[in-house]
Amino acid sequence: MLPRGSIRTNLLLGLPALLLAAAIVAVAASWSGDFFAAGNLGNLVNRVLPLSLAALGQAFVLFAGRIDLSVGSVISLSTAILATTSTSLGWAAVPLVLVAGLACGALNAAGVIYLRINPLIMTLASSAIVKGAALILMPTPGGEVDYTFYDAFYGQDLLVGWPLAVILLAFLGAFLLFGFTRFGRRIYALGSDDRAAYANGVDVRRVEWSVFLASGFFAAAAGVAVGIKILSGDPLIGDSFTLDAIAAAVLGGVALQGGRGAVPGVLAGSIALVLIANAFNLLELDPNLQQIAKGLIFVVALMLFMRGGVRRTA
Amino acid sequence: MSTSAYLVRMRPAAASLRAVALLVLLLVAFFVSAGLFSPLLLLDNVRQAAPLGVVVLGQAIVLMMGRLDLSVGATASMANIVLCAVFAGDMANTGPAVALTLGAGALVGLANGLMTTKLRIPSFLATLATSMIVAGLVVFFTGGSPRGAVPAGFRVVTEAWLFGFVPYSALIWLALLVLLMLLVHFTMLGRKMILSGANLVAARHSGIPSDGLIVLAFVLSSLLAATGGILVSAITGMASIGVGNGFTLDSIAAAVIGGALFSGGVFLPLGAMAGALILFVVQSLLYLLALPPAAKFIVQGLIIMLALALASFRKEKSS
Amino acid sequence: MAMLASPLPSDGAAPARLAVSGVSKSFGSNLVLRDVSFSVRAGEVVSLVGENGAGKSTLMHVCAGTFPPDGGTLTLDGAAYRPASPQAARTAGVALALQETAILPDLTVAENLLFGAEPRGLLGLIDQRRLHRDAETVLAGLGFALRSDRLGADLSAAERQMLEIAKAIRLAPRLLILDEPTASLSSHETELVLKAMARLTAAGGSVIFISHRLDEVMEAADHAVVLKDGTLTLDAPRGGFDRDDLIRAMVGRTLTDIFPARPATLADRPVRLALDAAVAPGLKPLTLDVRAGEIVGFAGLEGQGQRPLARALSGIAPFTGGTIAVDGAAVPVRSVSRGIAAGIASIPDDRKHEGLALDLPVRMNVSLFALSARSRWGWLRQNLERTFAEEARRRFAIRSTGIEQPVRQLSGGNQQKVVFARWLAETPKVLVLYEPTKGVDVGAKTEIYRLVGELSAQGVAVVLISADMLELIGLSDRIHVLFEGAVTGTLERADFSEEAIMRLAAGPEGAAVHAA
Asked: How big is chain A by its Cα radius of gyration, in Å?
């Protein structure tokens, strides 16, 4: 039983991604017996984790009708910080990374709000700045993330491991925030129509601040997940995440012009993207084809959703 | 129509003038820190900045249409791979090599243009997607280890100097700049492009075929990006994956320094040229000052922010 | 003229709910409000009446905190009232329901209605079920037939208006301001709105109510206030004015001096533009002849097919059926360029978005068609462009620092003249005008009217689609009235009057009700 209101419409927007994911599972499972092997499933969850977190952060910004192209650079910087500090600081390195992510979000928000730079360009510029910072901190991939991190986070043999728990917790929290709080509704309102939102008493600056901060925070969290996974830092590893995060959100039914889409759709979109890559692996196709296929899938998803996305009242 | 009157009418070029002033300042800084001054060194900077300068011209055309092309880097990289593969080090292949490289570039532009007009995908995402696909294709077809090389005879394009003091690549850059200036400011086609870029709806409602013009702009941008890739290949002489990737952000930064606006309707080729030179000199300066090469990214980002913040404050003041 | 009522409450006991005294406001050089004073008592409905552009909306926005007045003071229940924002006004108990509504398209009716006041349950989370139930209660109480879970984007203009009114009334404001609330409503819906107003005043609230419909004013107003050209021209309690008083106070100026003289008869002229059963989305089959030199006006309440008609004639959203002929030859206007080729010039209503490149200079904005017609081999003739632009600036009296000034810096009237100059580089056969003087000052209006008169004297067939009654009556040779996409009546010059137009504009049903 779906709740009443716009959230129902928004949840339904995520349905195609869910169906796509299910279809890929069905095809992959029938072609390769290895799909449901515990190892593969665990591997899938581990790969969904960073993408879904980055996509969730991006969704905050997209719901508000803005965009964040700095997500990838923030992920790179996060792995670099983690790999240079984890051995000395221990677990305290993680909050440090998250604060750095928030700082990147603050840079974006400040540029958009006070310098009045278009979010697209502002986050493009900040992505260069953050990437530069990552490269100065760590010119080539390296450093070391303490193995105890890996052991504690990915290595536990639990029924519901940490990665899955983090995904569920983050998405449940965000689902409640967007579906059932006044604050979430203000974010949707801003994305739906800037001027109408203002006329209805929405504090535009406050909403902009919070969505960019959220995006920076979740990108940094994604970076932590990546860093622990590869046990090192890589100043360029995040690059592909920027487009992937937008692709996951769009595939999950989030409208680029804002105001529409829901958090469960974002998760479904992230899962679908990871499954596509996984299917390529299982079918033993050239991994280079993956990138091409991902680009094409993204174009198709955009095409389908942009068509329906042209607003009647605009 | 006299040239002076034309120059007077380029007044919005105040931004370009500022860019030129900044350039002079940077050059002074450059020569001071290099500890020597020579016109040849200056011209050698121009020679090396030419590939970027050509790519910036294309980005400036797309920006004039109120769009953004994030695929120029991948296109230039692809051009390097295609050119070297077709050349295979043999001067006899010059015709097919250049033609195929430009043809491949034009195809990328066509895809970009059709995606943003027919499929109504925002240009930055459409071009981001093509750049990913193009890069994927390059790796897929080369298997990660590209083959071929540019024959020494062709490398004259960037390595040789006319009469010993004008680099050929600078001449190519200048020629393309003049051609585009003619197109934009002296033909009806160019005028219709400006009007479409400044206000798409108004242009459509005046019967201008704006969609076609947007496609044209993307094709021009990709052709120029491929040309930039050819020039880079002439400099390096070999095929390597991703040589042009830096052009995407460099070209945006350079165009913005030169006064281009993301709202469209402005084409300042001289500003774009100054912007390309500024970026190049900044990089040389960073090198001379022994700063890490990555500082370049930070400077780029700050430059874009600064240029746009200035533009938005000016606009606020004037309205 | 009726006597001017004292701004002080007559019973002398309580201060006025809202007292406006000596308020002035100008935008740029355009003085929109001039020393306006009036007051609203508790429990009273005040009708604010005036022509388009008389300053009504500006006055309402001043009262509702959208922008401050340049001079004068406001008091609310005796206390100084200077709202810094609409939000501040709302907190003070003043709610405004606008004509251009602030409905969020991606939220449901209920979510819009209770935005910012959503009922919360467990853990402080919004209770969606209760939210929709509460909204249904509010709507049912008002008698509005609106389903609570429809999305804002799916509502019609009338439904959005009803929702906007419901939002304002739900706040139980001390003062409710309604800006032409009934412009897009049917007579049944109008009754509901009037009833809701009555309930609010019975509970001690006050209402300011802007309307074009004089019958409504006579029925609902305890007090009428009339604005003309930014000045208060009538302020009288119920019984102290009748319809004629209102019209005199609204109009009260001679029309001949700003409108060109019209020829006595045009029957002998050839037919320039002929539509036969032409249909477009939002427009029912339309058959129409416009003779050379004739100006045919189209009137109607907002959203009755004016926009589809203008867009179809210009080729932006072409006719989907029927035929269109210019000078007897069928011309399928399937695109803007086909329309231009057929000699149809078309001035858009929204010059900033659909007409001009605001950041480009006057020169580039005026020269497009002149250059297209005279270019050789696709070269742009720079000399010719400059000469043409200078000439256009003189001919159309465009006030700018020169041909290189960006259009953004020009006043609304001069911007509109730039649009005219572009389209009239070559004399067209047919000129389609859609709200040609919206947001244009009186001086520029006069110049535009003179220009239209000249063109019609040269044999151009003019189609004038406008909400400005004075303009329609002053310029047209014949007026067709649109209602729900169809022409419901036609008036010849001898029968022109605002009332006659209004009666037809209200539609068959409205005409019956109002005539009764």
From this structure: 19
pLDDT over threshold 90, residue A48: yes
Question: What pLDDT, on the 0 to 100 scale, is given for residue A310?
Answer: 40
User: Per residue in C433-444, is it b (16+ CB within 10 Å) or e — as a string?
Assistant: bbbbbbbbbebb
Name the pairing type of β-strands C45-50 and C223-228: parallel
DSSP state at residue B188? H
Length of chain C (residues)? 516
| Number of structural domains chain B divides into | 1
Q: Which residue has the higher pLDDT, C373 or C417?
A: C417
User: Which pLDDT score is estimated for C509?
Assistant: 53
Q: Which amino acid is at C515?
A: A
Q: Is residue C10 part of a domain?
A: no
Largest CA distance in chain A: 57
CB pairs under 8 A between A and C: 89
Section A10-23 average pLDDT: 88
Instruction: Name every chain A residue with its beta carbon within 8 A of the beta carbon of B130.
Output: 295
Domains and CATH numbers, chain A: 6-307 (1.10.3470)
* Nearest-CB residue to B206 (from C353, C368, C406): C368
Cβ of A116 within 8 Å of Cβ of B115? The answer is: no
Considering only CB atoms, C153 lies closest to which of A199, A201, A311, namely: A311
Chain C partners within 8 Å of A3 (Cβ): 128-129
Give the integer Cα–Cα distance in Å for C141 and C138: 5
Q: What is the pLDDT of residues C103-158, one digit of tens each?
A: 899 999 999 999 988 998 888 899 899 999 999 999 998 888 889 989 998 888 77
* Contacting residues of B for C356, CB less than 8 Å apart: 199, 202
Q: How many angstroms separate the Cα of B77 from the Cα of each of A140, B14, B74, C128, C225?
A: 21, 34, 5, 53, 72
Q: Which residues contact A106 (CB under 8 A, 6 or more apart)?
A: A209, A212, A213, A216
Question: In angstroms, rounded to a whole number, what is the distance separating the alpha carbons of residues C398 and C405?
Answer: 11
Of A207, A206, A190, give the one whose Cα is nearest residue A198. A190
- Chain C residue closest in CA terms to B196: C357
Query: Could you tell me if C197 and C90 lie in one domain?
Result: yes
d(CA C90, CA A200): 10
Q: What is the model's pLDDT at position C3? A: 40
- C421 with C404, same domain: the answer is yes
CATH number at residue B125: 1.10.3470
Residue C77 lies in domain: 18-103+158-250
pLDDT(C9) > 80: no
* B3 occurs within a structural domain: no
SS3 state of residue C175:
strand
Q: Strand pairing of C94-97 and C231-237?
A: unpaired
Q: What was the pLDDT predicted at B2?
A: 41
Compute the mean pLDDT over every residue in chain A, rounded to the nearest whole number.
88
Q: Is the pLDDT of residue A1 over 80?
A: no
Nearest chain A residue to C66 by CA: give it: A199
Distance, CA of A229 to CA of A153 (rounded, Å): 9
CA neighbours within 13 Å on the CB side: how many for C252? 19
DSSP C108: B
Q: What is the ipTM of this complex?
A: 0.88
Q: Which residues contact C127 (CB under 8 A, 6 or more apart)?
A: C118, C119, C120, C121
B259 part of contact set with chain C, CB < 8 Å: no
pTM for the full predicted model? 0.83
Domain that holds residue B292: 38-313
Q: Which residues of chain B have pLDDT under 50?
A: 1-12, 319
Higher-pLDDT residue of C444 and C460 is C460
